[in-house]
Predict the structure.
Amino acid sequence: MMRTLLLTSVLVGAFTGAGPAVAQPLQVPPLSMFFDAGGTDDRAAAAAMAALDPVWKDGYASMLIDMARVLPPRVVDGRPQAHPVRVRLLRFLEQQTGQRFGDDLDAWRDWIWKRPYDPHPEYGAFKAEVYRQIDPQMTRFFAPPRATIRLDEVDWGGVKVNGIPPLDHPRSIPASSAGYLRDSHVVFGVVINGEARAYPKRILAWHEMALDRLGGVEITVVYCTLCGTVIPYNSVVGGTKRTFGTSGLLYRANKLMFDHETMSLWSTLDGHPVVGSLAGQPLTLEAFPVVTTTWGEWKAQHPAATVLSLDTGYDRDYGEGVAYREYFDTDRLMFRVPRTDPRLKNKDEVLGVLLPAVGGGRQALAFSASFLRQHRIHHEVAEQRSLVVLTSVNGANRVYEAGTVHISGWLDASTVRDTRGRQWRVTEEALQPVGANAAAPLPRIPAFRAFWFGWFAQFPETFLVK
């Protein structure tokens, strides 16, 4: 999600509380105390902090961090300085916790996330009020404040709701008409019910979402640029068509999308609703296979495919590599995550797979993209299932259910053979038996490229192959 400048309007003083904080001890302090502590009235703030002192719990620390996070800096003599209310909040936080992190919000978050999650019982309502100052629409994400994730890990991504505008059934053109694309340009290829379409990275990176119809199916193509992940989902879940948008919020640096029907927040990596009225319900978006490849490779394999047109209705520089150039060119992160894993660099690419676990839940697998380039045929057994990962010369990865078949070699760019000498054609839907091979097709399994830090942040229990 592209970071923008902090809001120019001052957050403090905008909260609506229930009047000055009351100084007597309370078992659970009212939210008005926290808002007074973060307000512009110094006397009311002092009274609020005095009242909070005897009932303080470290679980309240995230509330002060949330308020400090959205306070814009002030410019004094041409130099930006921390907002005085932010300074006050963080000094009080040091006093209450004994920690000495000063204005380093990343250090404060690291400390908070290592502690047990014990928030204020009205933390969701508090979060809604804080984000109201950014965009009033955000309050609806926390009503009701039901959640299956830690709300203190939900962060503002720097934009308002749909501030990065999704493409709504964008215009597509035949591959033969896409003169703006060079063979080396990166595209995300999807085939549904025999209809093939390419979503160029240079376009999708500016919008991070495309609501589309492919093969007669309404889909939502989500691109978390921070995590480097593109996933096409069926927009119909639980028998209901959902219209998704960009919330402007993140969870562990991963884009949180929302459905307009209920304003629930959904994880873009695992397809579950995580905050709002749908959180905790047995709903999972159906993911379709996608391949990250080059335009030259994709159009050679799918000459009848369509591709997005540059005529999107938006004024953007859709040049190759323009969007997020600085972010993609370094290993630095834009937003904090609870922890990283040094087995790979933060932005090393992996191929992620989620499998139903035998004992319930899901098992996460990650294959290093560089490993797969060196092992263009890789067999793996997980959750009592035999998988084969096939990688093209240009590095495009596809995962198939292998069963008892052992693929042993490539014959050409679209055909492989197994140890019994049988031939298989590599397609987007399955490995299809060729000629006298009377075996059943081997179905494709959805798998997605991602930056290692982003995949690990969501699935720290993941099994890594590198």
